[in-house]
Amino acid sequence: MAVKGRLRPAPAVDAAPAPSQDDIGVEARVVAGILLNAALEKRNGLDEALSQPAARALEPVDRAFARAVAMAALRRLGEIDHILNRRLKKSPPEAVRTLMRIALAQTLVLETPAFAAVSTAVKLAERDPKTRPYKNLVNAVLRGVGREGPGLTTAESNLPDWIAARWKATYGEAALAGLALAAREEPATDLSLKPGVDPAAVAAAVEGEALEGGTVRTGRRGDVASWPGFDDGDWWVQDAAAAVPGRLLDVKPGETALDMCAAPGGKTLQLAAAGASVVALDRSAPRLKRLTQNLERTGLTAEVIAVPAEDWEDARTFDAVLLDAPCTATGTFRRNPEVLRATKPAEVAKLADVQHRLLDVAAERVKPGGRMVYCTCSLEREEGETQIIAFLRRNPAFRTVAADPAALGAPPEALTPEGWLRILPSMWAEHGGLDGFFAARLERVS
Ligand SMILES: C[S@@+](CC[C@H](N)C(=O)[O-])C[C@H]1O[C@@H](n2cnc3c(N)ncnc32)[C@H](O)[C@@H]1O
């Protein structure tokens, strides 16, 4: 079933002359194109490009605008290309397409006035000898969309074909439609709170709502470091779904816990906040820096060690082990729309091998009678259910302990017949959705 949707029609482009759109506005749009292409090229491309000189030279407000435009273009790429392709007799050079994608992301998604988006796109086309011959085409296509409207588009067209086919086969047509709708929207920001901090008070301070499970959700934008409670370490940013595996592990004060793939550390903070004595490992020292900063800010403690888990030379075993394994992260498409473009089919199998290996390393660290939670923020079965089925086959010392979604602040429909959690971003639609996660709790019985 195709979900029909109409992008917002752009205001008439001839309505007003451009008010002095100075060169800063133009530069922000250049950077938006750079960010978009970097995100399409490789995983983490957008973040890397944001730290490059072109983006850093912008004022913060322009950099934020450039990022917002690139993110809007990524979320609606299929629809935007569909609108363009209907109006183009043959495909223009990539640089020209980028200009038009950026302009349509502004007019159709961000509601930037059309005269500003179109005039800067034409200005940019003029500036580069490679795009100059296409200046009139850019002008005609964008004005045409403004005049006649974008026409019908489908939310599914924003998903790469191979991913849409996979999710349809795994979750069915109705779920695919819900996932496609979730992928179009910019998500709210979720906060996990330190014990003793009142969710209602934080919700009031950030104009948000307290969700089941204790997460506070806010539509507020901008730099979180300036929000009330940040400096006091009252909370940290963590998607509502990402907070579930930590709760599932259910550590108690005085227990020992190992967070085996810990950085940047949202789950380590949860385990430490629950009173466990936590060891946090990660192979990436730069990623662990954020974890250390968050521990300092929140006044929580953990032993932080930069090492690949399989190389950690330490004989300790633990009451509770959390393996939040490296994965394709396809469940995080609301926050990171580029994951859908960056993930390639071969990567799923490659990461599944890594997860298989790390599960066995994690199992070795669980004390008799202890427990382990395995989770990934992927929607691919190979990185979730298939891993646990295979693990239980080769490790008869472990068995599943069924999750209780109501106690964990997870949607009830996330519970699988096996007692695992399969959270889809299309769930909790009435609250604005949540990231996709798989989580299973296992206990060492011998
Ligand atoms: C999904 S992220 C973890 C997110 C983290 N648990 C959180 O809640 O913020 C996966 C992490 O695994 C780390 N990693 C990958 N391979 C690893 C290994 N062999 N040993 C330890 N960490 C590893 C990566 O550096 C990455 O930080």
TrEMBL record:
Residues 1-20 are annotated as: Disordered. One of its GO terms (biological process) is RNA methylation. Keywords: Methyltransferase, RNA-binding, S-adenosyl-L-methionine, Transferase. S-adenosyl-L-methionine binds at residues 261-267, 282, 324. GO terms for molecular function: RNA binding; RNA methyltransferase activity. The keyword RNA-binding applies. PROSITE patterns: NOL1_NOP2_SUN, SAM_MT_RSMB_NOP. Gene3D superfamilies: NusB-like, Vaccinia Virus protein VP39. Residues 163-445 form the SAM-dependent MTase RsmB/NOP-type domain. The keyword Cytoplasm does not apply. InterPro entries: MeTrfase_RsmB-F_NOP2_cat, MeTrfase_RsmB-F_NOP2_dom, NusB-like_sf, NusB_RsmB_TIM44, RCMT, RsmB/NOL1/NOP2-like_CS, SAM-dependent_MTases_sf. CDD domains: AdoMet_MTases. The active site is at residue 377. Pfam families: Methyltr_RsmB-F, NusB. Belongs to the class I-like SAM-binding methyltransferase superfamily. RsmB/NOP family. PANTHER family: NOL1_NOP2_SUN FAMILY PROTEIN _ ANTITERMINATION NUSB DOMAIN-CONTAINING PROTEIN, NOP2 YEAST -RELATED NOL1/NOP2/FMU SUN DOMAIN-CONTAINING. This is Methyltransferase domain-containing protein.
